[in-house]
Amino acid sequence: MAAGEDQQRGDDARARAARTKRTRTRAALIAAADAAFSARGWAATRVEDIATEAGVSAATAYNHFPTKHVLIGVVFAPHVATLLVQADRDIARQRPVLEALSDQVDALARLSYYHRGLTAAFTAAALEYAIRTERTPDPADDLDPRNVVPMTAPLLRLVSYGQETGQLRADPSASEISSAVVNLLLVRSLNHKDEPAERTAELLRTLLFRTMTPPA
């Protein structure tokens, strides 16, 4: 009985050690990828170089992240996750939708400006994948960086809420306008990297509010 218990404890310890190692390796790869994409951009960054900087083999890197598109998505996604939390909180509080949308636009613009290299790299990755697949994101495609990073989700939820409560126009759809705003943001992250966040926010707000605000 004691021998069996010792064996079980040994197995548990090895399993914990393996999980800890995997977690640390994943964190090292994400940190190395963040720095590489931010500094060198999408095209000039290779998974093999990221693996070297993280101190692991390329095979290990691909074991964690099957493609470079997935890797940049995982690096970029946490920035958007905070915006989604805020959108859900505003909806739960029944905050006036124009105020909530204004804050979301400001946050998107600041994200693009303060993480300009990473945002530009993610934009290039998303465009490359869209050109390759020649379609809008397929929800079942786990390799699509547009699925890994739900960029439109915060605006989509807020606009849907505003339309359901009569605070916003019913047309265009929440999906169409949120995609238009995010696409404008991403294109500007490539073409206007050094533009102040306030200018980008002003343009996004103009597009969103003039399109969705009901006539007085």
Largest sheet: number of strands, sense, barrel closure = none
Give the SSE order as H and E letters. Answer: HHHHHHHHHH
The number of helical segments is 10
Mean pLDDT: 92
Instruction: Tell me the number of strands.
Output: 0
Which class do the helix and strand fractions yield? mainly alpha
- Into which percent range does the helicity of residues fall? over 70%
Shape: globular
How far the N terminus sits from the C terminus, by CA atoms, comes to 80 Å
Beta-strand content: under 5%
Would you give an account of this structure?
With 216 residues, this protein is mostly helical. 76% of the residues lie in helices and 0% in strands. It has helices at residues 2-40, 47-54, 58-64, 68-92, 97-114, 116-133, 145-148, 153-164, 174-191, 197-212. Helix 1 (2-40) crosses helix 4 and helix 5 crosses helix 6 (116-133).
Descriptors for this entry?
single chain; 216 residues; mainly alpha; 76% helix
Give a summary of the structure in a few sentences.
With 216 residues, the chain is mainly alpha-helical.
Strands, helices and their partners?
Blueprint (H helix, E strand, L loop, with lengths): L1 H39 L6 H8 L3 H7 L3 H25 L4 H18 L1 H18 L11 H4 L4 H12 L9 H18 L5 H16 L4
Helix pairs in contact: 1-2, 1-4, 1-6, 2-3, 4-5, 4-6, 4-8, 5-6, 5-8, 5-9, 5-10, 6-9, 8-9, 9-10
